[in-house]
Amino acid sequence: MKKIRRKQKGTILVLVVTIMVVLLITGLGLLRLGYSSRILAARSAFEIKAIEAADAGFVQAKLLMDKKLRDELVWNSSDMPSASNVLLANSDATYSYDVTGNAFGFTVTSTGTASNTTRTVNGLLKIKSLWTGLSVQNTLDIKSGTILMSDPEGEYFAIRTNSIADASIVLKSDTTIPGDLIIGPDGEIDDAVTMKETTEIEGMMFAAAEELYYPPVTVPNNLTDIDETSYTFVPGTPLTGNNKFGSMSLAVGEIQEVNGNCEIYVTGGVILDNSAELVIPAGSSLVLYLGGNFEGKNGSELQNDTGAAANLKIFGLDTCTSIDIKNSGDLYAAIYAPSADLVLHNGGIVEGSFVGDNFEMKNAGTFIYDTDLGDVGIDDLAASFSVFRWWEE
Predict the structure, then answer these.
(1) How far apart are CA 342 and CA 360, in angstroms?
(2) Backbone angles phi, psi at 279, to 5 degrees
(3) What is the DSSP letter of 88?
(4) pLDDT beyond 50 at 1
(5) How confident is the model at residue 4 (pLDDT cuts 50, 70, 90)?
(6) DSSP string, 110-140
(7) Which one is the CATH code of 48-127+384-392: 3.30.910, 1.10.10, 3.30.1300, 2.30.29?
(8) Within the chain, which residue ranges are assigned CATH 3.30.1300?
(9) Which end of the chain is more exposed for a tag (fewer CB within 10 A), N or C?
(10) Sheet holding 82-87, edge to edge
(11) Count of alpha carbons within 13 Å of 189, Cβ hemisphere only?
(12) Distance of alpha carbon 95 from alpha carbon 216, whole angstroms
């Protein structure tokens, strides 16, 4: 019996040791698992920080490219934005970026670093036109029976607003949009767009991924640097070359022509009284910069005899808050005034493109988007940068 007890005691001892070894191995495994999880979590946190830093660097580079586009009247590709080891706000991560390329396309490369983790994002920026049809920051109102189209027919056409407020776009009955209808980011089409059953949208309706940026108008140095004079109407004498006026007013029935490629900067307002006309003859062009408001009274006319909207461009500075046109004839013009309420009273043909804070067609007529306005170069005042492609490394 005593031998049996000793054997039992030995067996129990082996069993206890085995259990202790198993528990030790399990504990070590759990400890290693916890450690690995913490390492993985730390790596994930560093990766997130690195990606955030890289994204921030890309955004900064894009903003600087936009600023460069606004500030330089003639683009200089030899002086491109770049930065190294910039500390991300409220973080210990850093970013570095540079921009390479030419007027046909610029590549932005931004690298974010957090601890020993790096992530790189790339984007291809290309020039696009701000004139794509009708574009506003807030509201757009199209009257019943208005005909909209593009020239040539079938080319891209868009109506766009940055707003998501109720009734930002109002389309009355029997109106057809020959392209896309775009509202601000995160907006609801059913709320932001008011339209009748007889309204037809031939393209898509959607909320944009980001707001459309409307850069402020910068008057070129060839106009700001000359002396300001008082405008005086002289019958039979056309305006030529570069001009800078404090204000410009045509009295009842006065007809002012321009000759050649004429540029006018009016620091104040422009008024065309009843039946007054501002005429762009065939073979000429006019670029008009407005520091104040524009009002065309009953029977007045912006007469562009060239028939091309590109030959009558009107740019409104931030201080231009109203452009009211009562054209007695067809209107061929391109207007970019991002702070202005644009109101057209035309009942005839309006051909060109319009960008403003708000837009309203008071009378039913025909609006034709001149697609030639979409073809801009990098030095064009209506040029802007768009992210054409995006990829990560």
Answers:
(1) 6
(2) -115, 130
(3) P
(4) no
(5) very low
(6) EEEEETTEEEEEEEEEEEEES-SEEEESS-E
(7) 3.30.1300
(8) 48-127+384-392
(9) N
(10) 82-87, 94-102, 105-114, 117-129, 383-392
(11) 11
(12) 29
Q: What is the pLDDT of residues 344-360, one digit of tens each?
A: 987 678 999 999 999 99
**Beta-strand pair 277-280/255-266:** parallel
Two tokens at 90?
């409220």
Alpha carbon 193 to its chain centroid, in Å, reads 20
| Phi then psi dihedrals of residue 33, to 5 deg | -65, -45
Longest dimension (CA), the chain: 139
Residue 65's nearest CA partner among 129, 130, 125, 128 is 125
pLDDT, residue 393, reads 83
Residue type, 194: T
Distances (CA, A) of 279 to 60, 169, 274, 355: 44, 33, 15, 22
In the chain, DSSP finds a helix count (H) and a strand count (E) of: 3, 28
Sign of CA dihedral 215, 216, 219, 221: negative
Indicate the SS3 state at residue 324.
strand
pLDDT in tens, 93-129: 999 999 999 988 999 999 999 988 999 999 999 998 8
- Report pLDDT digits (tens) over 260-305: 999 999 999 999 999 999 999 999 999 999 999 999 999 999 999 9
| For the chain, percent of residues with pLDDT exceeding 90 | 60
pLDDT in tens, 9-26: 566 666 666 666 555 566
CA 341-371-289 angle, 5° bins: 40
pTM exceeds cut of 0.70: yes
Number of Cβ within a 10 Å radius of residue 149: 18
The pair of three-digit structure tokens given for residue 302, joined into one six-digit string: 């912006």
Cβ-in-10-Å burial (0-12, 13-18, 19+) of 317 comes to buried
